[in-house]
Design brief:
- The protein has 160 residues and is α+β, with helices and mostly antiparallel strands.
- It folds into two domains: 64 residues; 80 residues, Glutaredoxin, CATH 3.40.30.10.
- Helices cover 48% and strands 11% of the residues.
- Strands 2-1-3-4 form a four-stranded mixed sheet, covered by helices on one side.
- A hairpin with a 2-residue loop joins strand 3 and strand 4.
- The radius of gyration is 18 Å and the shape is elongated.
C-alpha cells in the first residue's frame, strides 16, 4: 500500500507540470505518465480525470484510440510483431502462433514473470524485410519461427 501512495504522489508531481486545466493537455499528460511508469494504471487515469475535470470514460476513449498508450505494465522485453500486408503475406501468422505458444500470452499481455510483453502492430514500416519482429527497439528482419525461438532464448539468458 505504501508503494501505491508513492506512485500516486509521483503522479501528482507530473500533474503539477500541467497547471492549465483543459482537454488540450490530455495527450501530453497521458504521455508523461506513461513515460514515467510504462503504462497507464487505473489510478493514474482516475487522477488525471480529477485534475482535468474529465470523466475517466473520456480519457479511456481517447487513450484507446491511440495505440501508443497501454493499460498494463510491459515486460522487461517488449516484443512487437508487424501484422501489415507484407508481413502477413510472408506468413507472420506462423510467427505469431509460435510466439503465443512459447510465451503463453496473447497480444497486449505480459508474461507472469514480467519478462516479456507482446504487441501486434498494424505496420512497423519495414515491409521489405517481412516478417519483422522488434524487441525493445531492436529490429529482427525476415524472422521465422525457429529464428524467433533463438531470439527469445537470447533474451531469456540476458541479465540486468
Amino acid at each position: 500500500m505504501a508503494h501505491n501512495r508513492v506512485i500516486m504522489k509521483d503522479i501528482e508531481h507530473i500533474l503539477q507540470r500541467f497547471p492549465q486545466v483543459n482537454r488540450d493537455v490530455l495527450i501530453p499528460v497521458l504521455q508523461a505518465v506513461q513515460d514515467e511508469y510504462g503504462y497507464l494504471s487505473e489510478d493514474s487515469v482516475r487522477m488525471i480525470g480529477e485534475h482535468l475535470g474529465l470523466p475517466t470514460s473520456k480519457i479511456y476513449g481517447l487513450a484507446t484510440f491511440y495505440n501508443q498508450f497501454t493499460f498494463s505494465a510491459r515486460g522487461k522485453f517488449h516484443i512487437q510483431v508487424c501484422d501489415g500486408s507484407s508481413c502477413h503475406l510472408e506468413k507472420n501468422g506462423d510467427l505469431l502462433k509460435e510466439l503465443f505458444k512459447q510465451l503463453g500470452i496473447r497480444n497486449g499481455q505480459t508474461t507472469r514473470d514480467g519478462m516479456f510483453s507482446l504487441e501486434v502492430l498494424a505496420c512497423i514500416g519495414a515491409c521489405g524485410q517481412a516478417p519483422v519482429m522488434v524487441v525493445n527497439g531492436d529490429y529482427y528482419p525476415r524472422v521465422t519461427p525457429p529464428g524467433m525461438r533463438e531470439i527469445l532464448e537470447d533474451y531469456k539468458n540476458r541479465t540486468g
